[in-house]
Amino acid sequence: MIMDAFPSEPYSDLSDDEVFARIAAARAALGDDALVLGHHYQTEAVVRFADLKGDSYELSKKAAESHARLIVFCGVHFMAEAADILTRPEQTVVMPDLEAGCPMADMASRGELESAWVQLAELGNPDDLFLPVTYINSRAEVKAFCGLHGGLICTSANAGKALTWALQRRPKVFFLPDQHLGRNTALAQGIPPAEITLWDPVLPLGGNSLAVLRQARILLWKGHCHVHTRFSTAQVRQARQAHPEAKVVVHPECPQEVVAASDAAGSTGFIVRYVEAAPPGSTIVIGTEINLITRLARQYRDRTILPLVSSMCPNMYKNSPRDLLHVLENPGRVNVVRVADEIREPARLALQRMLDL
Ligand code: SF4
C-alpha cells in the first residue's frame, strides 16, 4: 500500500468559520469530480460536508457506483481501502487523516491468518472445511486472504446473509476479526453455542483442542471493538429503570449478553431506520458510537434519544474539518490510499461476493 501524507499545519491559524467557508468553496469548485462520503460516526463538523452519509456497507456500495474522480472518505482506514479496491483505476481515494485507523481491524493480520490455516490442516484440508468470512472492518490483506480461499466480506448489515452463504458452501466458517458480531450473528442463525468456539491467534490451535475444533461450526477470531465492548447489561438495566417506556437498541459489535438484554440490535443503518420509524414521543436508548446518537437526537427532537453510555471512537474523531480542507484543496495529491495490486484483486473478489449477496 502506498500512502502519501503531507502536514496540514497551514490550516491551524484559520478560524473555524474560515475553515468551513474554504471547505464549501473547495467542494463547490470540484463539483461532480468529487464525492465526499461520511460515516455515521464522524463528527457533525465533518459529516455536514458529506454528499452521502451511511454505514460502511452503504458507503462502499456508493463508492463502487460513483463516477467521481476523487472519492473523499471521511471514515477510518479500512473503509478507504475498501473504496479504493472497488473503484476504477482512474479514481483516487483519499482520507482527511491517514492516521484514522481501526484498532479492531489491526487485531488480525494476514500472517496470523495463514498460521491459523497451517494449524487447521491437522483437521484436513482447511480449504475444504472452513470458509473465511471477514467483517469489512479488517485490513485489505485479510480481505485478500478471504478472496483467495473462496471467502467473502460482510458488514454488520449483511453478516447473517454472509454466514448462510458460507455454510451452504463449506461445513465450517472462520469468522474474523470481531468475535461479537460473529457470535451474535451465529446465534441469531440458530447455531448452538456448543458449535461456536473462540480462536485466540496467540495460542496453539487458537486455544482449542482438536476435538473442540472438530465439533465447532463457527470459529471466532478473538477481536473486538473497544467502543462497543464498553456497553454492559448493568447499563441496560439502569436505562430500563430510569426510562421504563424506552426501547433499547444496540449495535451487534456489543457483547452477546448486551444484545440479548436489548429490544433490538443492528447495524448503524438499522439504528437510523429504527429511530426514523419510532413514533413521536417515544424514548430510545442506543448503544453505539456517540456521534451518531447525538446527531439522531438533534434530528428527531420529538423523540427522546439517549446513549446507553457515552462511548466515542477516537479514531473516527481524528478526521477534523482542517484535514478535510487539506484534501479538498489538494485534490488527489495528498493522503491517497492505494492498495497494492496483488492485494487488490483477491480482496475485490471477496468484496464482490458480498455485493452480490
Ligand atoms: S467504532 Fe470500533 S470498529 Fe468502528 S472504527 Fe471505531 S474502533 Fe473500529
UniProtKB/TrEMBL annotation:
One of its GO terms (molecular function) is metal ion binding. The lineage of its organism: Bacteria, Candidatus Ozemobacteria, Candidatus Ozemobacterales, Candidatus Ozemobacteraceae, Candidatus Ozemobacter. Its cofactor is [4Fe-4S] cluster. GO terms for biological process: 'de novo' NAD+ biosynthetic process from L-aspartate. GO terms for cellular component: cytosol. The keyword Repeat does not apply. It is an enzyme of class 2 (transferase). It comes from the Bacteria. Pfam families: NadA. This is Quinolinate synthase. Keywords: 4Fe-4S, Iron, Iron-sulfur, Metal-binding, Pyridine nucleotide biosynthesis, Transferase. Its EC number is 2.5.1.72.
